Amino acid sequence: MTPEPAFLLHKRPYRETSALVDLLTLQHGRVRAVAQGVQRPGSRARTRLQPFAPMHVTWAGEGELKRLRLMEGRGSAALLAGEGLLCGLYANELLTRVLPVELPVAETFAYYTAMLEALPRPEGRAASLRRLEVAVLEALDALPRFTDPEGGELDPQGRYDLDHGSRAFVVAERGIDGRTLRLLARGGWDEPGLAGPAKAITRRALAPLLGSRPLRSRELMRQLAQRRRAGSH
């Protein structure tokens, strides 16, 4: 096969010197594979198979679990630390958890690549994550419908919450105002003034896909926020 652009999403040891990996690839979406020998000390493949580092890969095998054959670096890894690193870990954990194996998600791959470029800058993090989350929801046909359950328009003065069953919005006393939802419906996911509602909606829309098991990266973000608040007193 032709070498395919890819990023490592998740890696865990397998047998003595190998690893089980989840990759995000340009043409085949999430690919699960065995990377043979990468845990061996001094392995050149081990240095290439790192999070946030662009690669070209090939693999073999007909089943769900492939065997990696080629791993070549195609650039430097994104330099992430602190909150930026946690955002990257969140993106990797999210994609590993919700993307079916080998579902083509070229647009998600593009937004993931753009996110890695944005994460070193604090002002770009929230918007890049929302764009990635929206791309994932679109790929899985799970993006909210910005109407009421019958398909009617939302009242700009009303307040609404997302209904998982219909993926539409229902009246809710403590919900998000209809004006904001209309702006999001027109693609305002990354507008700074809409950051809070956009995050709330993508989180609610992703919840059924993630299930009851919490994301480890979200817990790490919460701990970081608590330490920052404690340090400011």
Could you characterize the architecture of this molecule?
The chain has helices at residues 44-48, 82-98, 106-118, 122-139, 178-185, 195-210, 216-232, and strands spanning 4-14, 18-25, 29-35, 55-60, 65-73, 159-163, 168-171, 176-177. It folds into 2 domains: 4-73, OB fold (Dihydrolipoamide Acetyltransferase, E2P), CATH 2.40.50; 82-231, Recombination protein O, C-terminal domain (de novo design (two linked rop proteins), Up-down Bundle), CATH 1.20.1440.120. It contains 7 helices and 8 strands, in the order βββαββαααβββααα. Strand 4 (55-60) and strand 5 (65-73) form a beta hairpin. The strands form 2 sheets. Strands 1-2-3-5-4 form a 5-stranded mixed barrel. Strands 7-6-8 form a 3-stranded antiparallel β-sheet. The chain is α+β, with helices and mostly antiparallel strands and 233 residues long. The protein is 40% helix and 22% strand. Helix 3 (106-118) runs antiparallel to helix 4 (122-139) and helix 4 crosses helix 6. InterPro entries: DNA_rep/recomb_RecO_N, NA-bd_OB-fold, RecO, RecO_C. Belongs to the RecO family. Pfam families: RecO_C, RecO_N. Keywords: DNA damage, DNA recombination, DNA repair. This is DNA repair protein RecO.
The H/E string reads EEEHEEHHHEEEHHH
The fraction of residues assigned to DSSP E strands is 15-25%
Fraction in helix? 40-55%
Q: How many separate structural domains?
A: 2
Overall 3D form = globular
Straight-line distance between termini:
57 Å
**Oligomeric state as shown:** single chain
Low-pLDDT windows of residues: none
Got a strand count?
8
Q: Give a short account of the largest sheet.
A: 5 strands, mixed, barrel
Structural class determined from secondary elements? alpha+beta
**Rg value:** 20 Å
If strands are numbered along the chain, what order do they take across the biggest sheet? 1-2-3-5-4
What is the H level of CATH, i.e. the homologous superfamily of the largest domain?
A: Recombination protein O, C-terminal domain
